[in-house]
């Protein structure tokens, strides 16, 4: 199988793992693999078709190898994916914790995949459930309805899957959603989204406000889902995830020491970082400072026998 290659040299410090790991949907994501040699692998459905991308860092540059019909597209957009259009210098810390997190993570950039559905569907699966439930659903659906990732038969690609195309998503029977633990509300939202997939993909080239409005025109997609999607598809530095169970409390605790912060309080605390609020949240999460737990974690629900 033919292999296409391209390299990109970042203009400063660069952390491939922290930049791209946010794209993985759990440790068992069939479309994302971290190999023992440090390389990262992604299987994507590009506008040109399925493609697999392998990324390694060597001699101060990121080297990409790609396979499949989408290989040329993946390499053409490689610098954008890796954060070439992101500007970390636009972030000015105004709190000691953020200044320290920024100093400790000089190689963090915001990735931009340019692929909306690839981030939207798993974000819909994550609505109102635990991460483990959503990751399990994504994994099962890709294994059942995705297609084998292009690439060498003796590497990580051999165990990876490319997510289904819109038509295949639309044809998934109700009982298969049920077996994957996806309730009717989330599966219906995905079905509505894939019917207008081409219109949603256009959001990758829009500014954050217009892109969010485009996504939220689909019933079932709200501010939480739109932000989670655009952070990845558009590299949206200001897309704050509101409506999240944990993020406001984490931001509030990190910046004030208080544990009861809500969305309004979080947005007030992040106001000095307008234009860079998502980056501020990423740095807070990377700092490792989180409020102590007061209640047990939600248990994973089993829909398979219902």
Automatic annotation (TrEMBL):
A Gene Ontology molecular function term of the record: DNA-7-methylguanine glycosylase activity
GO CC entries: cytoplasm; protein-DNA complex
One GO-annotated biological process of the protein: base-excision repair, AP site formation
Assigned keywords, A-Z: DNA damage, DNA repair
Gene3D superfamilies in the record: Hypothetical protein, domain 2
UniProt protein name: 3-methyladenine DNA glycosylase/8-oxoguanine DNA glycosylase
Organism of this sequence: Streptomyces olivoverticillatus
């Amino acid at each position: 199988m033919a292999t296409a290659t391209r390299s990109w040299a970042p203009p400063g410090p660069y952390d491939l793992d922290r930049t791209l790991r946010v794209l993985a949907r759990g440790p068992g994501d069939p479309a994302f693999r971290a190999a023992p040699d440090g390389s990262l692998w992604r299987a994507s459905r590009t506008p040109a078709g399925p493609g697999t991308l392998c990324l390694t860092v060597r001699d101060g540059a990121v080297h990409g190898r790609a396979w499949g019909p989408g290989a040329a597209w993946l390499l053409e957009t490689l610098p954008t994916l890796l954060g070439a259009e992101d500007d970390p210098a636009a972030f000015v810390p105004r709190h000691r914790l953020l200044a320290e997190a920024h100093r400790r993570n000089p190689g963090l950039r915001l990735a931009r995949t340019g692929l909306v559905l690839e981030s939207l569907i798993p974000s819909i699966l994550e609505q109102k459930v635990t991460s483990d439930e959503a990751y399990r659903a994504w994994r099962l659906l890709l294994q059942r309805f995705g297609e084998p990732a292009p690439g060498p038969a003796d590497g990580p690609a051999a165990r990876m899957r490319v997510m289904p195309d819109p038509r295949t998503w639309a044809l998934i029977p109700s009982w298969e959603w049920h077996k994957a633990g996806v309730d009717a509300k989330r599966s219906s939202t995905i079905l509505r989204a894939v019917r207008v997939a081409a219109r949603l993909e256009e959001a990758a080239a829009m500014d954050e406000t217009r892109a969010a409005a485009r996504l939220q025109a689909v019933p079932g997609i709200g501010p939480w889902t739109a932000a989670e999607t655009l952070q990845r598809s558009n590299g949206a530095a200001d897309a704050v995830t509101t409506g999240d169970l944990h993020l406001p409390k984490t931001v509030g605790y990190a910046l004030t020491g208080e544990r009861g912060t809500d969305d309004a309080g979080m947005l007030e605390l992040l106001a000095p970082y307008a234009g860079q609020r998502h980056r501020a949240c990423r740095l807070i999460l990377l700092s490792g400072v989180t409020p102590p737990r007061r209640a047990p974690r939600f248990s994973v629900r089993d829909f398979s026998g219902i």
